Amino acid sequence: MITINKQKAILIILITVSIIIGIFLRLYIFNKTIVIEPKDMDGKYQFYQLNQYINQKKFPTEGVFLNSPETYDSEINARIPGGYFYISYIAKYFIGGKTFEGARFVNLITTVLLGAVFLFWIYKRFGFITFAIMTALMSVNVYFLGAGNSTWNPNITLAFSFLFLPILYEYIYNENKNKKIICGILLFPILALIAQCHFSNFFSMIPALIIFFIIRWEKDTNKNLLSLTAGVFISFLTYLPYLIYQFSNNFEGILKILKRKSEVDDMTIIQPPQIYSILLFITNERGNKYVGGLKDILNHYLGNNSSIIHIYIYIYIFAFYVLSIALAIFILIYSYKHFFTKKMITENERETNALKDLMLFYLVYIIASIVFYMLANIGAGRPHYFYSSFTLGFVPVIYFIENIKSAKPKYLNYIFIYAFLNIIAIFLDRII
Fold first, then answer.
1. Is residue 265 part of a domain?
2. Which residues cross the membrane (predicted)?
3. Residue 307 backbone zone (phi > 0: left; psi -120 to 50: alpha; other: beta)
4. Domain that holds residue 172
5. Measured between alpha carbons, how far is 36 from 202 in angstroms, rounded to an integer?
């Protein structure tokens, strides 16, 4: 049996290895993908629009295009209401020495810092063991690695999720009135900025939060209506420059959005969104391999290997790819079995109740996304449409760890081993 001191030493080693490899991989991936200027269409037009705002000395009031244009300098397509994405992009561009790669590097730093804030919150709220495991999982998470490496607008929504989930949890958890008020005020403005980076959040996270508060009306929403209303008002203020600009330009942008909506209605078959992406966020699946089916997945890991050593390495990587998905499904079933049978147990009742409410929000988010996507006829959507729910995807994982700590501590060692070996698998996958 491992003593407390030995366990702490193991966790310190796990955290240290996680941080070192996490930093190394980010710098390695960044250096490997230096391009001076963006090459893909989304990157090209976003960088072009950035320079247009700077050269014309205009304050950004609109975001990226709702659909990628045919040419990077096109101006005819509908754009996302609100200018936060380009405001943040311009700030990163200037801080980064007025270069695209400088902006990318600033984006990398800010994304990592927000992730560090999230992990610090995990440490303060759930303790050292959960912090160590989550650090090991997050440091090499394939979505987190990608988000820091690109200024692409969906990646900003992923970074914001590091703030949104802790604030929602603290709103639920806190009995201190002042802390609850502050959290209540912050929730909707954060979602407003997220929606200015990716329009899909109007049909997922925002309605989900509204429905969640309606469900909790008797519990505490009615008591905190003033702070929540203040948050909605602040959210409105973030759109005020956009509304003023639209009013002075005969609502040209809004008319383009309505035109785009009618085009989508004509082309798109009503179908549910790829909401299962929220489960993929905690796995080693990058959100693109499964599209080509099992054949492409097997070919990626087991095909075209030049030596016997490479074959063994990729078998190891593939094993953890499969294991990460199997474990994600197991944790989801395990956690929601406890949720629906009312057998959720952690180290204290307040924590259990708060996690129970977060797991309810997880379900509300999934249902709301399906309903509103289909009502709006948006189409299936892709994993990056749901990046704002990145940390929400880890809620069952957090509960699972907290429950094991409390009810079955002897199984923690297996989680430590998996986390460590998974770090090695991701490391090998990215450098070979």
1. no
2. 9-29, 105-123, 128-146, 152-169, 181-196, 225-245, 311-336, 357-379, 385-404, 411-428
3. beta
4. 4-260+270-431
5. 34
